[in-house]
Predict the structure.
Amino acid sequence: MSPTSPPLQALTYGPTDGTADWCLVALHGWGANAADLVGLAPYLSLDGVMMVFPDAPWPHPQALGGRMWYGFPAGYDFRRPHDFTVQADLQASQARLKSWLLDLTKTTRIPLERTILAGFSQGGAMTLDVGPQLPLAGQVVLSGYLHSAAQAPVSPRPVMLVHGTSDPVVPIALAYQAKEALAAQGQPVTWHEIAMGHEIPPQVMGLIAGFCEDLRQGRQNTLANPLG
């Protein structure tokens, strides 16, 4: 990332008057944008939590107003291997997201140790990618996948993985791979396999809210059941 690269643009929901004690950052998927996710924020009912929704840096080639963290090869369908790590657009997004998250603490006054990083689909892959590099409180991955081998996190944190059994976009086999890879790194994984497709239904909103509230209240049940 060039030193002159502009920061990611983001939408914010929740208290911005300094009363928020925790922060939830949520990353949208391929072809969506921050506005798609911010509409879900009221349904989380997380009082005292600032929620921040950044736009991915690249415009989507087909979806009007859509954004992407990186492009996919022509005809890619997640059922054949691809080395994402060689893509320059992904490398640039990784650097920009990490830099933006570090800078975010200066404006929110909420440390990364009280910040939860979440992501859906491609945003979930970015969460698994960039999250371990920062001392976050926790990570939430919805319908996500790994770009490459799982990284050891710089600090302990629970990870919640949620995936649909009939996901037609990202096969659940990729979520199983992520779960096993994280467990091999010693990361506590809470696993939710749900009868759904590639989506975020109300049931999942409840799981996200519960995970965040457990962390805020210091409840350790997410850590006690590593493959829940």
